[in-house]
Amino acid sequence: MEESGSYGPKRKPDGPSLTDRIARNMFLASLVAIVWLFGVVVGKQQFFPYPQMKSVFDEAKLGFDRIRGEFQPEVSWFFYRRPPDGSVPITQTHLPDKVSQELLLVYGLGDDDLMSIRIMDNSGEVLHRWDISAFDLWPDMSHVPADLRPKEEPSGELHGLELLPNGDVVFNFEPLGLMRLGFCGDVIWRLPMFTHHAVHLDESGILYVPEYPLSDDDAEGSIIEESILEVSLDGELLGQISILDMLKEADLVGLLYLSSIGTYGVDISETDVLHLNDVEPFPDHLEPGVFERGDIMVSLRNLNTVLVFNRKTRKIKYVYTGSVFMQHDPDFISGNEISVFDNRSLVPDSVGQSKRPSDVSSRIVILDARDNSARVYFQGTNEIPFFTDIMGKHQWLPNGDVLITESRWGRAFEITSDRELAWEFNNIVGNGKAKGLLAMIAEARRLPAEFDRAKLETLKKTCPSG
Hints:
Number of strands: 29
Mean pLDDT: 86
Structural class: alpha+beta
Strand content: 25-35%
Largest sheet: 5 strands, antiparallel
Shape: globular
């Protein structure tokens, strides 16, 4: 029978005793500690179920970031959306009897938000890769102005690369400098200068690389002093050629002010007047003509100009301006002819645009130094779209095909001598922030025939992992 009191009936307590509550709380605290310790061990050792849990959390974060609008890779210059129908394949061979069979080297943005160098076949199978992170490969960034130092991945830009016969790679890692990695990924040397856009190795073993002086106090109203660097395969700086000095000595100073003429004189509001984006020595295997051994070609994008000079005398022997616009990657294709990647960027800033322009396309143009003429070899069409406002490379192949890198669209394609589409590659990112999107590539290139699967297997045996 319940007891009564001034505040109503008194009842026996329903809950557990104090001792029971203390025991239960201690058990829960122990359980939490065990789960936390298990999580720490799983996280550090990446045991099951760490990969599965990480994938779920990464997908959830990416989706949440997209909803909040904090991550929009489609408006970054690194990325474009996958076309709406979602039907873009990674690779597609259109003419199996005509496409080249040599392996490909592709470098640009890869998975896990890292820059990547890949060797692959026509099917897209990756046979070897280097994943490039500044935080691992170039930890001391003190030579780079603080506001330009990488803060997150991708921690720089790969732009210009040479694959050496022994499997090493030499490349520009903008804005950090020039570096050489072994086939197994070991750092052989670094050159802490702002090298960019291109790396070309001549037959004597000298690397030619564009260089741009990085500083915190670039003088306003003055043209940036750009140079060509001559670098040994050991990473030693052998020489430096000033583009400004060479133009002034040739009495071509007018080229410097094509875009800087004010009403009453010179008005330099943009100091990147030259924008040196390629330097290439004349190759030994070509028969000489107007051009010969010892000549060097450069591309000055912001002057719409390609010129050739003699390395020893510094005398300019050929200048072409006018038919190409914001061009890249001129190549010697004979002793008299130069092939140019003509971006033809006659559009407003296209960062974030999800469609190619309908009224303009990029082109491959051939210049003939004998009569100073130019002719269009190939330009984009509705059937074979081709446009990139910046960057871009092309390669003439032994079978007569041309491999073209449409950088901003993360695409490379091979056309035959009849201008037919033989093969194409789309750089669709498999994971990371840009998962499912087309990501920028700096270049796709066919490797020499001797650089085949057997050679890759031999090189892999030299790596610690075997």
